Amino acid sequence: xxxxxxxxxxxxxxxxxxxxxxxxxxxxxxxxxxxxxxxxxxxxxxxxxxxxxxxxxxxxxxxxxxxxxxxxxxxxxxxxxxxxxxxxxxxxxxxxxxxxxxxxxxxxxxxxxxxxxxxxxxxxxxxxxxxxxxxxxxxxxxxxxxxxxxxxxxxxxxxxxxxxxxxxxxxxxxxxxxxxxxxxxxxxxxxxxxxxxxxxxxxxxxxxxxxxxxxxxxxxxxxxxxxxxxxxxxxxxxxxxxxxxxxxxxxxxxxxxxxxxxxxxxxxxxxxxxxxxxxxxxxxxxxxxxxxxxxxxxxxxxxxxxxxxxxxxxxxxxxxxxxxxxxxxxxxxxxxxxxxxxxxxxxxxxxxxxxxxxxxxxxxxxxxxxxxxxxxxxxxxxxxxxxxxxxxxxxxxxxxxxxxxxxxxxxxxxxxxxxxxxxxxxxxxxxxxxxxxxxxxxxxxxxxxxxxxxxxxxxxxxxxxxxxxxxxxxxxxxxxxxxxxxxxxxxxxxxxxxxxxxxxxxxxxxxxxxxxxxxxxxxxxxxxxxxxxxxxxxxxxxxxxxxxxxxxxxx
Length: 555
Known about the structure:
Belongs to the glycosyltransferase 22 family. The chain is an alpha/beta fold.
């Protein structure tokens, strides 16, 4: 790692830690705890990032858009816009550029615009780390609210339970629209926890409710439309349980959120999508909602039963089995049950309502996981502070520690397995190392690389394209075109999952292995649990024709 890169990572770490202690207590012990917990969250997030540095197709839009903004600048002219990835690969519906604009703006002071030319893979890590720090900061903000609502011991357990959850920490730095929305929903949750733990009728409580509704409204309008259901559930609960003022709180917050959210996304996305929509106003989340929900196109990606979120997704996302015990335990404690109930009820309503839609994915309810963890941490804090009072509390506290350690270990195992699901990114990095040095230095310009579908879905991004003079072809051609031998003569390298389908004289250079399942026995039949791997992608080099050999071309 170069000196400049080291300085950049130190800046990120320091920024994350400062964010976690900005609202902490003034005592030395309290500040030390804040720093330690901030360091834990940041370290776990960065560990997931570095062990699994590549991205999948679901993250690709925001990754490519951030790259293009850093590499080419804002597309004030159509000439610049034509360099953008979404011009060639627009997808079925438009996506918002707001998140990419935010990430590029935050990474520019760290030298991203300069490094994207000299070291683009590093900039991809940089972009993801900035998003990860935003999510770490928002999680730490919830902890400070937990400190107020349930005590500092509960706050510590909130961080420990969250850090040991695989999905939150693994995806914290991934550029899914859900994870771009998560900082806003986390900040809203932090305010709601405070409101529900103090006098809800105070002026400060009203202000926090307005802020929470405002943040949820913006998140739903700009990033993910399903947050509108969570917003509706929280609003209904405020009006029914907390006697929130419709005129002074709900309507002003909603109108402000709608105005800011629409003004932001429509202005930004109309600008970036002007060629595809002829300059007409573009609101990506509305278009996506209409396409996926109203027209029912999301069902084409698969359907799940009503109970999927409750019986499958929630236990997996919480990971620690003790969380499923701690949540009902908290709700049984008279001192805090009303707070826990007020926190969870809107989240359960949101998940139940969203369960009516046939297409389901765990990431659609990721915003609810911190709320469930908050309630679980309240129970954990209650047990931990009483661990010396009885044998039963001691045994339960010991079980809690053991299950949390086990969850950390399970999370690390899942991290290793998940890192094997990105053969495309590994293959392109390997190809660059295999290509002759002379080609890498540009002596043979116009090197053409064909990238197959699996490679594109499992890690290939514009940040991974090291050589500007090379052509990385990501086009999905008709099968009849690919059966033409002349088609393959246009390429020097190919990264494909089915090498037997390539026509012509091609030499396999290397194979990239990926995850192929879990096995209980080894090849000899002995019991030996292990992760199975198999070759997912092949790197092929076209053999030179006699004419190319005589001309001295290097590929």
